[in-house]
Amino acid sequence: MDPSKVDIPLLKDLTIDNITENVHLINSGCPDPRLKYILERLVTHAHDFARETRLSTDEWMTGIKFLTEVGQICSDVRQEFILLSDIIGLSLLVDSIDHPKPRASTEGTVLGPFHTHDAESEANGSTISHDPDGEPCLVLCSVKDTAGKPLDAVKVDVWETDSKGFYDVQYATREGPDGRAVLQSDADGVFWFKAIVPVPYPIPHDGPVGKLLRVLKRHPYRPSHMHFMFDKPGYDHLITALYLRNDPYETSDAVFGVKESLLVDLGRVDADQARRYGVSEGAKLLTYDFVLVSDEEAKRLRESEAMKAMEALGRRMKLYNGLPVPDVD
């Protein structure tokens, strides 16, 4: 950071019209082409936004204050910045870009702000929710690759709210994880557990994100769903969720997470399933066949879609570590 050891370009007399090119000029020495490109586009869009809206100092300070408050409310069990990203649709957009899905594979959706890393590893058949007021639900799923081959030893992270619509971490009296677990698929690619029927619930709206929703005249509710996250070496990381069809908030999810392919109808446990899985006949049943994409499949598709997007923008680009940067050679 010694100025005498850094070759800094000379800046021009700064105006509304030339400030952007001057910022690009002074950032141009960045040796990482991807970081340089990201900053170039970020500065360009931020400056264009200010010019286009004729942003006032008061409005700019209001935005700074809002982002400060977002950071101040974050904790180990609450990520308000993820919540902000969710409610403006950015989380879903980034996931869709970074984890493209070929046909017949399971689509991704938002992680949400309440995933934790303290869920206990459980055997198939375990009960993950101990809420006595929840309606019992048997979850019986499989996981395969895009060729239909069952995948064993897939780490499956699952989590859901209780019957009142709260995650365990939202309780001050929390003593440990509940409504969440980490399982593994068996040799047939099957994993199953005992949960409760998901219910709709509001995202936390007691903080700055909630204030923003109220200003926008939006509701904070999410439709009934259950989260799933899949991890297996050689396969693209999948964060997804299953949503109950015809939920009152199916078409107005506060965080834009619902996709048609992720809507499910609950069935009923039949007599054979009741005996096999140790649950009551007639209990609610959630079934789904998840399909993972290999790392190589995802890489090819991600790079192909990136270059198509750059061509549509009329930009001459190349790939650097699998991501687009300006082709200046």
UniProtKB/TrEMBL annotation:
It comes from the Eukaryota. GO terms for biological process: catechol-containing compound metabolic process. InterPro entries: 1_2-HQD/HQD, Catechol_dOase_N, Intradiol_dOase_C, Intradiol_dOase_core, Intradiol_RC_Dioxygenase. The keyword Ribosomal protein does not apply. Its cofactor is Fe(3+). It holds the Pfam family Dioxygenase_N. Keywords: Dioxygenase, Iron, Metal-binding, Oxidoreductase. The keyword Chaperone does not apply. Transmembrane segments: none annotated. GO terms for molecular function: catechol 1,2-dioxygenase activity; ferric iron binding. Residues 32-105 form the Catechol dioxygenase N-terminal domain. Residues 112-292 form the Intradiol ring-cleavage dioxygenases domain. Belongs to the intradiol ring-cleavage dioxygenase family. This is Intradiol ring-cleavage dioxygenases domain-containing protein.
